[in-house]
């Protein structure tokens, strides 16, 4: 939707420059709508409709994110302390995991989410390749956390750079960073969850699992 409205706005004003992700800002949306009031024609009308839709969806997304934030902070506050992991990613991990204590170890959790590296031998060198199995929603959330750490210069940068200096490719280093974040997430979730009662019936998660698409809708 954002790509479409950008195209229509460019048709109206080729000199208009809209920063990346700026269409999530209410102030900019209001300014663009006001500017379009002086333009007539089908292109301007479609652009106005798209901007109104984006504004409505953005408001709805913000409301959902607000509710998710309260849920995550109440149940798994330590999870939000993992650098690079946002509310949507944390909610997806909680919903898909349905309790970290059902995993015997961080390695078992890594196999579940697809971050456990698979060794590949080539001559005297040992490399790892991407696991094609595992929970893709959790894997995506961990990948986004890794990318965010590198982009913001968070704690994962030093680890990533060290791997590169030892001969790892960028792809391999990113995979290993993703696994490291998986271990951090597992530890945080275990710390937030009470020890399981062996006689209790496992409860299903109250968190929605398909929340990553919220970023796209805006």
From TrEMBL:
Keywords, comma-separated and alphabetical: Coiled coil
Annotated InterPro entries: Transpos_IS110, Transposase_20
Protein source organism: Promicromonospora citrea
Protein name: Transposase IS116/IS110/IS902 C-terminal domain-containing protein
Keyword Coiled coil: yes
Matches recorded under Pfam families: Transposase_20
GO MF term list: DNA binding; transposase activity
Coiled-coil intervals, chain numbering: 47-74
Domain Transposase IS116/IS110/IS902 C-terminal span(s) in chain numbering: 78-160
Lineage: superkingdom: Bacteria
Biological classification of the source: Bacteria, Bacillati, Actinomycetota, Actinomycetes, Micrococcales
BP term (GO), one: DNA transposition
Region (Disordered) residue spans: 192-218
Membrane spanning stretches: none
